[in-house]
Amino acid sequence: MATTTASLNSTAAVSAAPVKSHRRMGGGRIVAWTALIIIILVTLFPFYWMLRTALSTTNALFSDPAKLLPVEFTWGAFARVLGLATPAEARAEGGSGASVQFFLYLRNSAIFSIVATAGQVFCSALAAYAFARLKWPGRNIVFFLFLTALMVPPIYTALPNFILIKNLGLLNTFPGLIAPYFFMTPFAIFFLRQFFLGLSQEIEEAAKLDGAGHWRIFFQIILPMSSAPLVTLGILTFINMWNEYLWPLLVGTGENTRVLTVALGVFRTQSPQSGPDWAGLMAAVLIAALPLLILFFAFAKRIVNSIGFSGMK
Amino acid sequence: MANLRKKFSALVVGAAALSLTLTACGGGGDSGSGGGGGGSGDDAIDTSNVSGEIDYWLWESAQQPAYQKCADKFQAANPNTKIKIGQFAWDDYWNKLNNAFVAGDAPDVFTDHLAKYPEYITNEQLVPLDATLKKDGFNVDQYQPGLADLWVGSDGKRYGLPKDFDTTAVFYNKKLVKDAGISEDQLKAMTWNPKDGGTYEKMAAHLTVDVNGKRGDEAGFDKSKVKVYGLGLDGGGGNGVGQTQWSMYTGSNGWTFTDKNPWGTHYNYDQPQFQETIGWVRTLIDKGYMPSIPAVTGQSSSDIFAAGKYAMLVNGSWVTNAMFSAKGIETGLAPTPVGPTGKNASMYNGLADSIWVGTDNKPLSAKWVEFLGSPECQNIVGEAAVVFPAIPSGTKIAEAAWKAKGIDLEPFTSHLENKTTFLFPITDHASQIEGIMQPAMDAVLTGQADPSSFTEANNQVNALFG
Amino acid sequence: MSDTWVPAEVVTSEDVSRRPRRRSGGGGDLAMALVFIIPATIGFVVFYLYPSIRGFYFSLTRYNLLGSPHFIGVDNYVRLVNDKLFWNALLVTVEYVLINIGLQTILAVGIAVLMHRLTKSTLVRGLILMPFLISNVIAALLWFWLLDYQVGLVNEFISFVGLDRIAFFGDGKWAIPTIALVNVWRHMGYTALLVFAGLQTIPSYVYEAASVDGSTEWRSFWRITLPLLRPILALVLVITVTGSFQVFDTVAVTTRGGPVNASRVMQYYIVQKGFQQGEFGYASAISVILFIILAIVALVQLRLLRAGESDLA
Q: Considering only CB atoms, which chain C residues are within 8 Å of B95?
């Protein structure tokens, strides 16, 4: 019982309360871990279902709808997604027989997502700094105005933007595809502004005393101190760009600009009142999510580390 | 404070001024479709010398290989031409097409649908074909009877050439039918009527089984715990059209959708033949022989059939391959039941290819459309055994191709021979009508409203034509 | 543009600099600020402001997208006041937002705190985030199948234990809560990640000091964590509430507004009217109303949570 003192209360100061509090802590920890595990299970079960379906044969899927293991195990769905199956094989299993040039579309998605994310995070960081640290008239009103861009339905912006990109002759090009996302999203600006607001001002004040201008403060102090939120924003933005569907569907139809999400639309419902190629669709989703997962785990440590704030020396 | 107000009013004035200037110059941006406005005249297009590249869109990926073959054949016969085929899934197809119309970036030729094309005509998005077809001596009578007329607009001009057609029939699960002691011949000779449902309802009742093994016509049948439905329902109430949900019943009960078809201006949802039929369908749901609307809000009916939950299901010929490829299920096909008129009936629908008014290569587009509407291409499509081509020779090839796979489609094609088809209703205001009829139909079929409520809905629908 | 003409002695606004050395920079950060926000402003004006203003103009017209707009003044607004379906859409959407945000925020904060205090494992973090890696549409399709009345796993299980099946999407009472829960499933990990990033900014010495004073986990949470999280919570709530009001994908893929009108949320009604029924002008008017509602809600949230300040800095 006494050894559990080593849990969260790191201090050695033991008063009369601890015996009661760390027993509550012990029971509390069990409850907390149980809750976390339940949440993880509910979160992950659909992914297991996706895997199970991806390893099944589409035609046979509904002959045993509640089976927890794959129905008629086959790698056919993955073959279809990677473009390795012949049309005849695909149709035999219930797929549509359309061809998928997987690696080309993967490349397109990568270009689109990386460039859009880089631009968005950087330009938004610049603007967020102006809203958080610089003092200028109308600052809060302009910030709120930028924020209202969140409230415009994407369907409304899609059509005028589509017309604009067409008039600029940028249809089916990467610049046209990336343009609406490159400069900012209201979320990115809001997110970074809130974090910049929370940064301790002592280091900046010290730098100003030394005569540093805003540019130097931004690049040499603010950005490094904000590496955790910047990386978090970068990952979230990348995920959003990777999963974008409506805009790339409109603007990127040519082979060289078609992104993965649009290309994998061949696995969705092809004709009215019929079902999708479930195995192919699930395999497609899993494969498309894989780069995101890899990215996340590669950068996860950066998100965990605290800002390394050391205002107190 | 005063400054804040000043800034705000400046903002509002600025926005108003901005919007006014934008309307002045912004109007042109999105009526790019107007670019072809004057040019959609009726002059014949010269198809003698064609070259260049055009875009052709379709949604059914299973048909794409066949159309690619058509394109290859066409390109071989017409050097210096290229047909780029774009395929988009059904859910995305209309979204992309409409956006493309507005932006002025639509495909030169595209697969058109009866429910959408009236609005395209009203908005002058399609090119009339009459003069061109006449000049080229094209035979518009070579299609299955009635199909070609579907594509003549209310202005009397033709906007598409038929490419395929579909009808409906009863699919059934052979094992479940056999287990119930019903012979397939009995299924092929069913009758129904709005009073007691005839042999059709008796079959459905006998084929329905609850979780305790009791059949629908046995004592102790628990309609809240049905395991297998005798008669399935395709997806929902079917809005105001009910192609696979109830139109085969109303059609054999002496009811027509509108005063005339195509281009009627008065709907008949207030007539007793319609209301009593829907009322009867509702009794099937109430008795547990047919799933309710909430129960079918979900996966497609062909998938639920594949799970062995439906003994019979009325569906369209376009899902034939899906219905017959379900592993572990042996599927059979029977014609729709005979109704009070003494005959059975099926809705008759068809697709066609249309030319966009803003195309910059009218000659090639027109020649391609003529090729698509000719036996050369339709025979190729028939061989793929995915749809019924509109030209009789193509239909026969498709039937034979399916027979080679072991599937006999007589119940679909018999409607053509017996002339028991009726057309999909073609009128203006299709989407507003759907907006009125969808909730109305759902309300009646879920028991929230009486079939007499259709009279009020009918008034709203007919007011659109006022 | 600025109020510099007021004599220094009479100035009462908070722009009065308390530290004399800042006069050279105070209020006069304008030039610098403009440079910082130029990229974001380009994106904002071209891709958000311009389409929004056009949308506002269209709300005063009758327009079916393929013809030309006819100016009709405020007729659309008068019409929507009397439109039963408009009020239904508003009601249904509010119901959805309350269930969705209520549940999602509580779960997200809970998960974030659990992750922060229980385990530093990046694996757990990654697992929680996984639902966010698949798009809204795919998540909806997946749950549409899992919860299907006749062939869904959940209902097969319910029927197996002897209960009556539930039409999760087909029953008017269940439709909105089900859609809300599907979106909670997808977004709770993402929201938790945002809150977690915020938790990172709270220096650990604050907790250490509190536990030295004998505070329990629970009290530390309420007295320290929540208040210091304010800027981030403000961000999270504004973003999630705004996004929640605009729910569309899930409805479009599953219930399509049904049964009858039980899930005909505002965004779906707008798309139906504008893009399917050719009444773009009327749909624009409804969008403007939605926009105003969202702006007011966001403003209230920002004021209540004092999002412009941070207790840390």
A: 275
